[in-house]
Design a protein that fits this description.
This protein has three helices and three strands. With 132 residues, it is of the alpha+beta class. The protein folds into two domains: 69 residues, no CATH class; 44 residues, no CATH class. A hairpin with a 7-residue loop joins β2 and β3. The longest helix is centred in the C-terminal third of the chain and has 11 residues. The chain is elongated and about 75 Å long.
Length: 132
């Protein structure tokens, strides 16, 4: 049976295995052996899964954190598309790319950084072939 908060939020199933989740409370002893406060946590009912999220001061906080899931990203418009700000380059640098990296370093008396070398190599990278 799913736990429910005072606000009516229902505990969602485990995000990893889909099994039911359980709200648990753990009491902490102070130096006098008393139980002045407790923490709430949520765990998957499947012991083989072992998912657990805890350390919250209230049931509502524990359930709210457990129920927070990442927003799914939409799939790329087409398979093999390159995201904005990225370019497609060969897995292994071509001779032209290596030569561009070498040329940028020749005649310079200052130390180059990797950004300058990478920019030169990218400028010499071949354009990908169009597939039908």
């Amino acid at each position: 049976m799913n736990e429910q908060t005072k606000a009516g939020a229902v505990l969602l199933p485990c995000p990893f295995c889909g099994k039911e989740a359980t709200l648990c409370a753990e009491r902490s002893r102070d130096n006098n052996g008393m139980y002045p406060f407790g923490t709430s946590y949520v765990e998957c009912s499947d012991r083989d899964c072992g998912a657990q999220l805890g350390g919250f001061n209230s049931r509502d906080d524990a359930i709210g954190a457990w129920n927070t899931r990442p927003t799914p990203q939409p799939p790329p418009e087409q398979a093999g598309s390159v995201p904005e700000g990225f370019v497609l380059v060969p897995k292994v640098a071509t001779n032209e790319m290596a030569l561009a990296a070498l040329k940028i370093s020749l005649g310079r008396h200052v130390q180059l950084n990797g950004v300058d070398i990478w920019a030169a190599m990218l400028s010499a990278a071949p354009a990908p072939k169009e597939t039908p």
